[in-house]
Amino acid sequence: MADGYQQFDMFTANKKILAFDLETEEFSGFGNLPDVGITCAATLTDDGEAMQWYGGMHQGTYDPKMAQDEVVEMVDYLWEKMQAGYQITTWNGLSFDFQIVYGQSGRDERVKQIAQAHVDMMFHFFCIKGYAISLDKTAQGMGIAGKSEGMDGSLAPGMWKAGQFEEVLKYVAQDVQVTLDLAQKCAGEKEVRWISKRGIPNKCALPAGWLNVEEALRLPEPDTSWMDNPWERTRFTKWM
Predict the structure, then answer these.
(1) How far apart are CA 21 and CA 89, in angstroms?
(2) How many CB atoms lie within 10 A of CB 106?
(3) How much is the CA Rg of the chain, to the nearest whole Å?
(4) N- or C-end of the chain: fewer Cβ atoms within 10 A?
(5) Helices (H), 87-154
(6) Partners of 231 in the beta sheet?
(7) Burial classification of residue 238, based on how many CB atoms lie within 10 Å of its CB (0-12 exposed, 13-18 middle, 19 or more buried)
(8) Strands 87-90 and 119-120
């Protein structure tokens, strides 16, 4: 195996996987992410268990955002699944999804443990290459159906606010399906392929499959001397 990978166990095909994603209320993009509300979230396991959460779900309403007790209920589920051996898997969940979950759950310390133990595929890629790629461009590179045409996560907050609840719930469910498909296919083929902004196909080897956050942080730092303003890994982890 490549240098830095000998110490890790492979993310094997028989590993139980749980994909996770969420959508948020509208926010400016600035300020404190833990203060941003969650409108809805979804999970999907590789054995077909699909779950969704949203504000007001138990009351039969669609609220502007999930209440703290609703977020904690979701954390309970993720925690139980992790303890049962599921590998929670996201795309950019370390710096975004779980930072928001941490704040909206009342700073439940379990969220930090879940975040550290989960596989954030984008973060693992970043630790190898020193830059990030998008879920949609990676799905294209791997030959997996991605987001619906004309739809992306930036539209979901406004759609929820406008009352397009079912459309947003369908969108977040599709995202966890794509996340699960990518996790399985990339691990099985031991590489991740993506399409660059210039439309050029690229690939990167994953000799040990996907690594969780704790393992990815132990990889050697890549050479980023060619970049003007390279990101530091702390950009993703400082909230913890």
Answers:
(1) 9
(2) 12
(3) 17
(4) N
(5) 98-104, 109-117, 121-129, 135-141
(6) none
(7) exposed
(8) parallel
- 17-62, pLDDT tens digit by residue? 999 999 999 887 656 888 999 999 999 999 999 999 999 999 999 9
The model's pLDDT over 169-227, given as tens digits with 9 standing for 90+, comes to 999 999 999 999 999 999 999 999 999 989 999 999 999 999 999 999 999 999 999 99
| Residues 240/112, Cβ–Cβ less than 8 Å | yes
- In sequence order, what are the residues at sequence separation of 6 or more whose Cβ sits closer than 8 angstroms to the Cβ of residue 112? 98, 102, 240
Please provide residue 4's backbone torsions phi and psi, each rounded to the nearest 5 degrees: 90, -5
Structure tokens at 89: 């898997």
Amino acid at 64: P
On whether the CB atoms of residues 61 and 201 are closer than 8 A, the answer is: no
With 0.70 as the threshold, say if the pTM is over it: yes
Using CA atoms, how far apart are residues 115 and 113, in angstroms rounded to an integer?
5
pLDDT by residue (tens digit) across 141-161? Answer: 999 987 666 666 789 999 999
Give the dihedral of Cα atoms 72, 77, 78, 83; nearest 10 deg: 120
| Dihedral sign from CA coordinates of 228, 236, 142, 190 | positive
- The residue with tokens 């898997």 is 89
Six token digits for residue 54: 């949203």
